[in-house]
Amino acid sequence: MDDHVAEVILMNSNGNLSWSKKEYVTGYLPTSAVVNDFNNDNKDDFAVINSFINSVSVYLGMENGSFIFTNSFVTMLDPLVIAAGDFNGDNIIDIVTVNCNSYSFSLLFGYGNGYFQEQKNYSTHICSYSVAVADLNGDTYLDLVFDNYHNSSVMIYLGYGNGNFRPPIRVFTPINAIFVTVNDFNHDGRLDLAISHYNGYLSVLLSTC
User: What Pfam families does the record tag this protein with (predicted)?
Assistant: First the structure.
């Protein structure tokens, strides 16, 4: 991404693997984007972090593959990464941002029309560079996993399904974690963690419960 631009690259359906690019003006220093349906019209929309001005901009998708800017929504200081999911159980997609220098994450609960409520903030006491969203404990509620770079661990927040979370669980890693993702890597029906480290190594933590 450029300092003020988000790019959408569309694949042309001509069988020649060609693409067309469209640019959309964002706030200053966009660092991360997420795709989801924010207004329940069965079309993909996207939201972009504007790190320098502490906000999220939302763009709603049209039938022709173009997008329309709706509004920007305030976050805590220095948002870095964004993800989406239904965190309060109302079947409407919400947004979560990781705010590195304010050691927090923000939840913006969706109205289902592309607009969001005022941020709800949670202190993490760590500067994270990534977040993974998944139901880790099988209770049907979405949970959050953050890397904890400076303390060689990841932090797991189990969700109650109402927009609140249990106190974090720290899982230690071999060395400083910089990115975390979730999947069932050994096909046992339980979600595992894959963690990348600043020294070029990758570790996989297999779930045992």
Answer: FG-GAP_3
Q: What is the amino acid identity at position 187? A: H
Q: What is the pTM of this model?
A: 0.90
The domains of the chain are located at 1-123, 126-208
User: What is the percent of the chain where pLDDT is above 90?
Assistant: 70
Q: Is the distance from CB of 185 to CB of 206 less than 8 angstroms?
A: yes
pLDDT of residue 14: 60
Taken in order 110, 52, 102, 126, is the CA torsion positive or negative? positive
Query: Tokens 């920007």 map to which residue?
Result: 72
pLDDT at 201: 86
Ramachandran assignment for 188, one of left (phi > 0), alpha (psi -120 to 50 degrees), beta (any other):
alpha
Q: Which CATH superfamily is domain 1-123 in?
A: YVTN repeat-like/Quinoprotein amine dehydrogenase (2.130.10.10)
Q: How confident is the model at residue 13 (pLDDT cuts 50, 70, 90)?
A: low
